[in-house]
Amino acid sequence: WSSTAHKVDGELTVGGVAVADVVAEFNTPAYVLDEDDFRARARAFRDAFAAYDVFYAGKAFLCTTVARWVAEEGLNLDVCSSGELTVALKAGFDPARIGYHGNNKTYPELRRAVAAGVGRIIVDSFIEIERLGQVAADLGTTTRVMVRVTAGVEAHTHEYIATAHEDQKFGFSITSGDALEAVRRVVAADGLELLGLHSHIGSQIFDSSGFEVAARRVLALHATVSTEVGVTMPEMDLGGGFGIAYTTQDDPSDPAQLATEMSKIVEHECRALGIAEPRLSIEPGRAIVGPAMCTVYTIGTVKPVALDGGAVRTYVSVDGGMSDNIRTALYDADYSCTLASRESQAPPMLTRVVGKHCEAGDIVVKDEFLPSDLAPGDLLAVPGTGAYCRSMASNYNHALRPPVIAVRDGVARVIVRRETEDDLLATDVGA
Ligand code: LLP
């Protein structure tokens, strides 16, 4: 839950606004974004990593309002597509503070980014290095570049695996020598200025040992570049991936602790390698926006289903589903939820919260104990839906993507409006 969320007589309140009042005004399903919580998490990263640059990863969730909050809190922005860049520029985000990712940026996309003055472009293939060199030449300018490398660490939620990591689409392999070759090509290209190496090991990571191994490997390459290529790179980026609590079983990452651990490793390694410390940057997305948002649904049907062995699971259908939160279906993600509109003393029952889509896998919350007097019209709230829910939302079954309502100091305002059926028909040229 976000920091201002609490219940008053069973009614959930966020940002000083009763969720039931948000619903009365804006209907369900809706994402409710706690502005103070978002800003506080952004600031916590900025303050903890005061000696670093913090890039908010817009893929987790981005709209113009949020881009402005990011700027106001002093963070930079990581975009990974032309669409995200459009939102950032529309918000007036300083392009010099934007990092642009992606493994398949086209010539027009790169040209537009360079022309707009994007601060750094993270290159991911030899073809892209050549393409970007061409863009810089065509525009008669110089652009800053980071080289995305594969650190040889694949991080998972609770562990990391140092095998099977090379077989994926991102980055230049350090072990094969491609990463060093990429550096050489960037250095050799007119119009490309090498800022440093970039590594991102995964997402929803709790175990900092993955970052530690990655930092060591990337710093070793950083040192090799100084000795073998004769170039001292000023920066290094260790990516994002810091885990958040989705259920009470998870232990969320603490920015201050992360900062201390990362700085220690980098300091120690640089001393051991006899090199100057590069300026570090990180790219948290989920850890900033994830806990700041919840999704509110209205219950439509309640259906007990007998399980083998005589137990019962009650399927509670809500007015959204996999179109507003694909993570349960896609990653088997765990969510929790709560009755948000009233107090109930009824004994708990085992429930599964499902959506309204034509698909059995359309599950929002796999298992939750909810009061046994749940009824149509009750509101359910699912916490921790700020990251990769609205941003991965779809129009499956021609669902209308829900609005994002920002709440703060007792005021609720729409920052992304609900889609309408006219929006759906707008792209259907036969309509
Ligand atoms: N930097 C880079 C280069 C990334 O690829 C990502 C995420 C991030 C930063 C931000 O990671 P975060 O701090 O948010 O974990 N859709 C998946 C997550 C995909 C993450 C992709 N890259 C999910 O819903 O879990």
TrEMBL record:
Name the UniProt record assigns to this protein: Diaminopimelate decarboxylase
Binding site for pyridoxal 5'-phosphate: 241, 283-286, 388
Gene3D superfamilies assigned to the protein according to its UniProt record, in alphabetical order: Alanine racemase (3.20.20.10), Lyase, Ornithine Decarboxylase, Chain A, domain 1 (2.40.37.10)
Enzyme Commission number(s): 4.1.1.20
Cofactor(s) listed: pyridoxal 5'-phosphate
Record PTM N6-(pyridoxal phosphate)lysine, positions in chain: 59
Job of this protein: Specifically catalyzes the decarboxylation of meso-diaminopimelate (meso-DAP) to L-lysine.
GO terms of molecular function: diaminopimelate decarboxylase activity; pyridoxal phosphate binding
Positions annotated to bind substrate: 286, 327, 331, 359, 388
Domain Orn/DAP/Arg decarboxylase 2 N-terminal: 36-290
Keyword hit for Amino-acid biosynthesis: yes
Homology family: Belongs to the Orn/Lys/Arg decarboxylase class-II family. LysA subfamily.
Active site, renumbered: 358
Xref: InterPro entries: Ala_racemase/Decarboxylase_C, DAP_deCOOHase_LysA, De-COase2_CS, De-COase2_N, De-COase2_pyr-phos_BS, Orn/DAP/Arg_de-COase, PLP-binding_barrel
GO BP terms: lysine biosynthetic process via diaminopimelate
Keywords of this entry: Amino-acid biosynthesis, Decarboxylase, Lyase, Lysine biosynthesis, Pyridoxal phosphate
Domain of life, source organism: Bacteria
Signal peptide extent: none
Pathway as given in its UniProt record: Amino-acid biosynthesis; L-lysine biosynthesis via DAP pathway; L-lysine from DL-2,6-diaminopimelate: step 1/1
Catalytic reaction annotation: meso-2,6-diaminopimelate + H(+) = L-lysine + CO2
Quaternary structure (record): Homodimer.
